[in-house]
Amino acid sequence: MPVVELSYTRLQKLVGKTTIKQISDSLPFLGLDIESEDKDLVRIEYSPNRPDYSTDFGIALGLQGLLGIKTGAVKLKIKKSAKYSLSAKPGIEKIRPFVTGIVAKNGKIDDKTIKQLMTMQEDLHFGIGRKRKKSSIGIHDLDKITFPLVYTTANRNHQFIPLNSEKEISISEILTNTEVGKNYGSLLGQSSQVPLILDANQKTVSFPPIINAAITTVTTRTKNLFVEVTGINKEDAEDMLSVIATILQSAGFTLESIKISGAKNSSPKLEEKKMTVNSSLINQTLGLNLSTSKIISSLKKSRLDASSKGTNIICTIPAFRFDIFGPMDLVEEVALGYGIQNLEPSLSPSQTIGNTNPVSLQLKSLDQTMIGLGYLEALNSSLTSKRVLYDMTNRDTSKIISVLNSKSLEHTILRDSILPGLLENLSRNIHESYPQKMFETGTVFSIDNPLSEKFSFSGISAHKDANFTEIKSILQSALKTGFGIKIETKTATNPTFEDGHCATIILNGKSVGVMGKIRSTIIENYKIRVPVMGFEMSLSESILKTKN
Amino acid sequence: MSQVFHDIEKKIITSLRDNPKQSPETLEQSTQLSPDQIRRGIEWLKLKDLAIVTESKTSIISLGKNGIESFQKGLPERRLLDLLKTGPKKLSDLQKELGSVFGPSIGLARKNNWIEASSDQISLKTSPLELPGEKTLQFIGNEKLSKDKIDNDDLSGLLKRPDFIIEDIVKTKDIVLSDSAKTIKLSDSSGEIDVEAKVPKIFVARTHPLKDTIDEIREIFVTLGFSEILGNMTQSSFWNFDALFTPQDHPARELQDTFYLDKISAKKIGTPEQIRNVSESHKKNWRYQWDINEARKMVLRTHTTCVTIKHLAENKPDEARIFSLGRVFRNEKVSYKHLVEFNQIEGIVVGKDANLRNLMGIQREFYKRIGITKIKFWPTFFPYTEPSLQTMVYNERLGKWIELFGMGIFRPEVTKPLGITKPVLAWGGGIERIAMLKYGLDDVREFYNNNLGWLRSATKCR
Lengths: 548, 462
Description:
The complex is a heterodimer of chains A (about 550) and B (about 450).
Chain A (H helix, E strand, L loop, with lengths): L2 E5 H8 L4 H7 L6 E6 L2 E5 L10 H11 L11 E2 L5 E4 L9 E8 L5 H16 L8 E7 L7 E7 L3 E2 L8 E2 H7 L1 H6 L8 E6 L5 E4 L3 E2 L12 E7 L2 H17 L3 E4 L1 E3 L11 E6 H8 L5 H10 L3 E5 L2 E6 L9 H12 L19 H15 L3 E2 L5 E2 L1 H6 L21 E2 L4 H9 L8 E12 L3 E12 L5 H16 L4 E4 L5 E11 L2 E9 L1 H6 L6 E7 L10
Parallel strand pairs in A: 4-15, 5-8, 5-16, 20-23
Antiparallel strand pairs in A: 1-3, 2-3, 6-14, 6-15, 7-14, 8-11, 9-10, 11-12, 12-13, 17-19, 18-19, 21-22, 23-24, 24-28, 25-26, 26-27, 27-28
Chain B lengths: L6 H12 L5 H8 L3 H13 L3 E13 L1 H9 L2 H9 L4 E2 H8 L3 H10 L3 E3 L3 E4 L9 H7 L4 E2 L5 H9 L4 E13 L1 H5 L25 H15 L3 E3 L4 E3 H4 L19 E6 L6 H15 L5 H5 E4 L4 H11 L4 E10 L11 E10 L5 H14 L5 E5 L5 E11 L4 E11 L1 H4 L8 E7 L1 H8 L6 H4 L2 H4 L7
Parallel strand pairs in B: 7-11
Antiparallel strand pairs in B: 1-5, 1-6, 2-4, 3-4, 8-10, 9-10, 11-12, 12-16, 13-14, 14-15, 15-16
Helix pairs in contact in B: 5-7, 11-18
């Protein structure tokens, strides 16, 4: 989950008549988790579906609603302006087809506001922008730009001074030498042409989705902003723009429209949408019996507008709330506005009879039997390593099942056997007193068009008098008591077990596992100083019943 | 405290009073007990602080090949002197008689001035009664003796001779009585035992603490009317993500968060209708090109929700309480907080009472039964439920609220494409967190270390 860092006092100023205590008590009920607090600074975790909460301006809007300071939908006031236009040129549709934008004027920008806008931009890029692939934003100093603008293509030799640089460099150089270039250059593919926004004087404004020009850098002296969003999908680009527009308006800017045209582009509407939900769906889902007026006031506290028509609630949803897909999302908005703390849990008697899965029951009975025989239960990861599974025990590596890009070297391969893990456990306990007897039941994996998962059962006994007779007695006794079955043993050879001390476990004439004395070379690998006996057998084929 | 001793203990104490420092072997002889009885007796006395056992190294001396020959025939120089007693002998005759020891014996006898040598014969000057080493050679004989029992001056000459003496360093145990044992009264009334004595530690075999917690949670839900279903840990992306409304380009699906299996993809992922409906829902709501090959990629399940949603899609019940319990995986760095593999329980309710307050009620009841009463609910976000809540429980030991199970109602975007028409309540969360509370652990890795010290001693702290 993304995190934003805020100042309580600044947030308090934005919210209006409230106390810091009220703010910190209310944040969780907006769905925001307080990750940490340090005096005035607070770090807040927010959900990726609410990018408006990536700034204190957006959080303040939510708090105002919940605390009843200002309720109802936030309306975008966009002044129609003929001064600003941007046209897309043919050719752009093959690279990054859509562009949209807005102008925001007469705002006060301090360091904190710049920081909040940067966080929002990063969050939008990462989340709904899908790492800038779907859509990306550029925020510029309006007064450094001469309109009209064009959204066009240029080749990779095109030069300009990019953000955080002092000299002109080419597109190719940006893509190979700068960090953003390396991170996002692949979004442009192999095309020789790249997208650019140029102003009326042919000055480069932006090279989406990579970097802005240095000249339009926003500083604390900036008064007026130009925001552009480009992307591969018009709706997504406009969704992103609606979040920025809402936040900038809340930050005190006056919005003015830009006329967008050319190559299937058109001006953004950033319109509210209407959605109807029946109050019975709301009441049934929440387990409440709210009147329509209570539903409406709850929706208003969630910063939506609503009216009723019979039992239907007609809801007006601002453009930036594109996380609302359908009526069920409105039910949640009612619950939030009503206050989750006001929902009293209730327990209705069960209409069903509960059952433990028969496999779980049988495994449990086996566990109890092994414990009765003096064996301690161990638990190991099923995602383990080549070292534990194969290298230490000389086992066959031809059917390894591995995962991609594991962050942990100890967890790269799915186990096909439990016993190696138990041996590893013994090696980590050589300082503990003997005898050491352990068992484990669990899932093992094998390749089988595409994969099969089976329950396996393994045990080990390590002490100075450990011998084959003991382990065979234990296994026989466990299976007799646990499942009422009788096994036989037949001489075998196995890379893990000592020759002459190794047997196949036979059930109804079929081999189901192996048992015996662990090879002394393996014991030495693990620096264990006592003999070790072990067994492993599959439970899935003929032992566990899947139905009662 | 009146000390009562076992017969074995009494015999050992008595023997040690006569002969204060003994090895287990000498105790066997003096007490006529078996080696095993001696071993146990010493162990008991040690636990009672009555006997002190020290290990020491002793040098054991025995005769080598040449030593044994000399023990039987006499030292080479003695053999030479004996031959000369009957008069001077020719060198060649002596050589024939003495064989390989001819040279060394002549050399030694000349050096000590026992013999006189002319051009071709040797005659006796004097024959000492006892030669250096002779006494020691006889003393050792066929025995193995501790070096400190041998006259070391006399031995030193023999040690220099090849293959005469074998010296072995062996570890020996010496048992002595502690001061209190020297004067302690040995009761005569046999048959009584010391019921107050310390006894050796013995370790219980038991269920793994985490498994114990899992079993407890399973039982609670069964008694609340839920039935358990099982499912695979390896799943197609279709059931782990697509069916749960997680778009294919969502960051949670990337390699750095999810374990994808190398070179393995699912052949059959669902019915044609399921695939068509799910892909339509994605295209419409998330606006992107849905790719079936992405849905075929096999992953280690990131939650058990894939098991319940599959069950619902296959059975479409009107009324049901079902749960699934098992291991789930996240590609994370392992730390005291995070494991790559952990256990999750996840349950659903389908039916006419399926509403959010009931869902909260089931949670409250569950927490009550595991001993947690201080809980509250906060709103949260999950891609596949709406509304969504999380439970916060108060941990007295840490003095703070911690997040436990998440819950919500499956989104219509999830249920509708799969033909599920009734509302479905769903909840779930990690079990290790609960087990950590129960066992007072701060490091989640402890559950999978299989550290015997901990497994043998862990106790619930609730």
